[in-house]
Amino acid sequence: MRNTIKIFTFFIALFWMGEGIGQTPFMSQSFSATNFFNPAAVGFSENNQFQSFYRNQFSGVGDPFKTLGVGVDFALSRSEANDWYSNFGVGLQGVSEQVLNGIMQTNAITVSVSNRVFLDKYRNSFLSMGISTTVLTRNVNRSALTFGDQYYSGRLFNSSSMETVGDFPAKFSTNGGILYSYTSPEAILQAGASTYFINRTSITQPYDNVNQSFQFNTTFNYERMLNEDKTFFLHANYQKRLEASFLYAGGAIGLPIRSFYDNNRIYVGCFYRSTDAVVPYIGLLFNKYKIGMTYDIYQNSMTLSNLRPQTFEFTLSTTLTSNIPKNLKSIFN
Questions:
Q1: Which one of 165, 233, 269, 305 has the minimum C-beta count within 10 Å?
Q2: 163 with 155: CB under 8 angstroms?
Q3: Average pLDDT, whole number, for the chain?
Q4: Which value, to the nearest 10 degrees, does the dihedral of the CA atoms of residues 196, 199, 200, 206 take?
Q5: 87 vs 236: which has the higher pLDDT
Q6: 18 CB burial (10 A radius; 0-12, 13-18, 19+)
Q7: What value does the CA radius of gyration of the chain take, rounded to a whole number of Å?
């Protein structure tokens, strides 16, 4: 009965937060940074963890977009007395998006809290629910901008375009998600969804009307042992954003690395984003570190000009505690 009340209360909160403001980063390795996309994922790996990513998008046509993110998450009230299990988790994520070497910069700080309900007596499967709060700021470096009408004479009565670029007020949001997870020594399965409300600020006047839209994320992760040392994983997510809706799906094979440590693997795979690109992937799971790199190969319709866009993404995660995993050591946990 108590678990039913928790689930019912969460869904009421999920519908209530429609007035929130927020958004998530655009990534090719969202499966390595689930906590940035779903607050229900924080705090429930077998070890506390640190996550980071760097994405340099369209670098072949200048240096238009860079995204940097860091995050930590912890389990609350986990101890040897309760066999290192916890029902509560908390996370902190920071994301900085820079346009044209930082001429425009958007920074977001998110605090996430989650709670889970175990669905079997062995605690192999659980349903978790999370809510996060985001503070978002945006600024423009006016000293790096020059408009043509600044050179015109007669500006005594007419302002230049520079003077119409206003300040951007800080914004706050409340966002939420739900996640189902199953883990065992042979496999891990995760399926979840989250919702955000995107509130875009006008570049010219803070009070202009701009398009607003809900953003929805759904995620599916599955990794399984092929034999005693090889694995394969599948990942798929659907995102409905203001600028585009797309399906992103693919997988990789995990090949063992012979070393002193057990279950270390190198991953080789590929993904497809339905709107624009094929994305080769290489990853490394070694001791307590997870490293990944992708390169977006864009479709012909995006590369007809002599300018060739290039997008590299690098992720690094590590555990902050040293509990011995009871279940499959996976790229997802």
A1: 305
A2: no
A3: 80
A4: -160
A5: 236
A6: exposed
A7: 22
114-157 residue pLDDT tens: 999 999 988 899 999 999 988 888 887 766 666 555 555 455 44
pLDDT of 167 strictly over 50: yes
- Residue-by-residue DSSP string for 246-311: EEEEEEEEEEE--SSSTT-EEEEEEEEETTTEEEEEEEEEETTEEEEEEEEEE-GGG--SS----E
Kindly state the average pLDDT of the residues 39-51.
90
Contacts of 86 (CB under 8 A, 6+ apart): 43, 44, 75, 76, 77, 78
Contact 225, 189 (CB under 8 A): no
Which among 268, 266, 280 has a CA at the least distance from the CA of 311? 280
Would you state the structure tokens that stand for residue 246, as one six-digit string?
């797309």
Q: How far apart are CA 13 and CA 288, in angstroms?
A: 36
Three-state DSSP at 182 gives strand
Which helix (H) or strand (E) segment is 117 a member of?
strand 104-118
Q: Which CATH code fits 2-319?
A: 2.40.160.40
